[in-house]
Predict the structure of Fasciclin domain-containing protein.
Amino acid sequence: MKTIKIKLLIFLALIALVSISCNNDDDTPSQQPQTIASIAKANPNLSSLVAALEKAGLTATLNSSGSYTVFAPTNTAFSAFLSAKGYANLDAVPVAALNEILLNHVLSTKVKSTEITTGYVKTLAKGGASATNTISMYIEKGTAVDINGGKTNGGGTVTTADIEASNGVIHIVDGVIGLPTIVNHAIANKNFTTLVAALTYNPASGFAGILSGTASSPFTVFAPTNAAFTSFLTETGFSGLAAIPANVLETTLKYHVVAGANVQSALTNGQVVSTFAAQNFTIGLTGGAKITDASGRVSNIVATDVQCSNGIIHAIDKVLLPKF
């Protein structure tokens, strides 16, 4: 009889244990990741982004299956953007423009903060320069992650990274990332600081303003790197930008620009390119893409197809010299 009582007590204890286990399972259901759109909707600091997505008809996209990276501007970022652009509120932004601005915050692949490297990536946005080539985004990873040179250059900085979603990842940023112009992209990349200084050295030329706008656009810019400018100064004997006569500097800069064309990297051997300086140079493809300038000097094209809203940039390793 004593044995039966012991077995009954053990049986009852097992039932109680199973019951507790089941109750615990009910109290703590497994958390499934939500979509990017759902996470944004639950974050009060992203309510402006949610409203913008709904107005542009993009909520369904970020609710769908996929693998996206979204740089999500805060409400403060949207307020600053609207004020800077002269919009009274979000409703005042044209839907088509809002759509492209929002798509400029989205990558088609999932990129976590540990996978971010300094360089160019492609967003889903399209500018006025090309109907097919999507806008480039420049990411610089240092002590912080800056997008297109930070918010002072129409970009932003990541303030909160790696918010996991079922269809990708969210990085919160402190600025609305506008569609970058050629000048925005040149400023963002520290390899072009001398080029930016040259473009802005003589404000009277208005050259920086031209490459920031849409008149005569789209532009194709063959952009010399800082090292290219250093070699140029050594080669020509000028002590610096200040020593270059204004007309020489302006003509040289214009010689790096093609107006009225968004020329992507599908170049042809022997192609003759007409420039904004009313002088030509020639493309060569033997041993890699090269440019032979009017002075017979050869420059290598070292990076291609940085798509801007008003044109495209290709980086070169030597300053091109026109005839004077």
Observations:
- The longest strand covers residues 298-308.
- The domain at 191-316 is CATH 2.30.180.10 (FAS1 domain).
- The longest helix spans residues 2-27.
- Residues 1-29 have pLDDT under 50 and may be disordered.
